[in-house]
Amino acid sequence: MERRSADVKVLWSNLHRGVRTFIISYVKPKETPFSYRLLATISKHVKDLSALREEDTKLFIKIRTHRRPTRRELAFSPIPLTLNIIGRAVLKNPGYAVLTAAIEGFRKPDLAAASLTLSKDEYTDYVRPVIISSSPDVSEKSMKRHASDIARRVWGHVRSTLASIDGRFEELEDITLLPPIALIAVMGKASAVEEIKAVIADGGEYREIKVPVRRPEWRITDLPTQIIEDIKTSIVDPIKAGMPFAAKGALLTGPPGVGKSVMAEALADALGLNVVELRPQTYRSMWYGATEKALNAIFKQIIRKRREIALIIDDAEFISSRKYTMHEAHISEISTILYHLQRPDRPFTILTANNPELIDPAILRPGRIDVAVVMGYPDRSMRRKAILRNAERYRITFKPEGMVEELVSATKWFTLAEVDALLRLAASKGRGVVGRGELEWGKRKFNVNVSERVSMQDYLRWWARKTQGIVITYIPSETEI
């Protein structure tokens, strides 16, 4: 969050004379009906916003507008909130302050304005953020997961801005930042892509197919450290730079649970794209020729949105080799998919597969799928990263110190999905706290066949060596695991 010149003002309210509010704006605020509609919507949740002492309270409000609010309109939005609802909440909770931040986006927040509301007479011990995000570029789930991190960044920026203006604000260093009390997502209807609709009309039959469009949940930093740079260099950077030779698609393969779907979404996120998943149950029909018509209609709409979305074909084994396919309808379906995957105007396409040898080789040739990423069982560093990330996500604590390393050692040859499951199971036993007893109890519930997984790891190395084209591998050795 870059430093910019800010205008700082003090607001007083006759309704709540016991509080004071400092408004920091980076553009000239513009008063419009949008701010008061926002106030009216949030007024329905006054009771939740007054519960500043309840640290687990998290209110999520989604507001749709006909158009995206301008930066100046967004900068005005904290003012009516602080003079009404926020001022009342601070007055009822001496010792608590509220930071109201109006930002554009969410992944890389651009701060338009912020307000800090404090008690005039009481010493402030804690601050609770309220985050208003215009056109957030992540999903609701991701907003909730990363809200505390965004709040820390905004709070640090606001604190340094106030301290640079008046040295008396250096006392803000002693205030404890608590989790956000509320997240408010403001989305214009034009930018809220939620589904792709395809219509098939055949004689008297009319059929509408809806394919969900969603924002990625994962980021490229969630991937194994060893392959992040290779993926950026071979896939992400050329596409973002608009290079004509950039990859058109990628295959992600490995055993179940190692993070293929996570990597698919992380790739889409790194490219700034939403995600569309193509599943057979969406388009298949029992009627002759209807499946191909549905596929053509879906791809027509997907190609129209190609600059906004990444196409993910999960468990792509269903596009099996035509030499193993006996049914004429299935051969026709595969041929239709092959046709669309060779079009130059298609979106970036990601295939995931547990058994890549079943996929038709024609799909995996360069030009359709340019890069293959082979993922094995996670090493110690990746398991540690997953444990720490999930512990923060689930608010799990470890006692005594060193339990994270014990958990890393205890999950040798586990998949990332199994690491997550063990962590949740042990935390359930300890009611949010994981110790040695909870870990041992949870570990007894798991059955992992090490010899079978060693064989799978060897198979992945063999497959990576024999595969033609660009191959990126993450297959840790037994000593690394």
Can you put this structure into words, describing what you see?
The protein has 481 residues and is an alpha/beta fold. Helix content is 38%, strand content 22%. The chain has 15 helices and 18 strands. Strands 1, 2, 3, 4, 5, 6, 7 and 8 form an eight-stranded mixed β-sheet that branches. α10 links the parallel β13 and β14. The two termini are 37 Å apart. The model has no long low-confidence stretch (mean pLDDT 85).
Which term fits the overall shape? globular
CATH architecture of the largest domain: 3-Layer(aba) Sandwich
**Main β sheet profile:** 8 strands, mixed
Radius of gyration: 26 Å
> What percentage of amino acids are in beta strands?
15-25%
Count of individual domains: 3
Give me the count of strands.
18
Q: What is the name of the CATH class of the largest domain?
A: Alpha Beta
The end-to-end span amounts to 37 Å
Please outline what is shown here.
This protein is α/β, with parallel strands linked by helices.
Layout of helices and strands:
Layout: E1 7-11, E2 19-25, H1 33-42, H2 46-49, E3 59-65, H3 71-76, H4 78-92, E4 96-104, E5 110-119, E6 126-134, H5 140-165, E7 176-177, E8 182-188, E9 195-202, E10 205-214, H6 225-240, E11 249-253, H7 260-270, E12 274-277, H8 280-283, H9 290-304, E13 309-313, H10 328-341, E14 349-353, E15 371-375, H11 380-394, E16 397-398, H12 403-410, H13 416-429, E17 433-434, H14 436-443, H15 450-466, E18 470-474
Parallel strand pairs: 3-8, 4-6, 6-7, 6-8, 11-14, 11-15, 12-13, 13-14, 15-18, 16-17
Antiparallel strand pairs: 1-2, 2-5, 4-5, 9-10, 10-12
Helix pairs in contact: 1-4, 9-10, 11-12, 11-13, 13-14
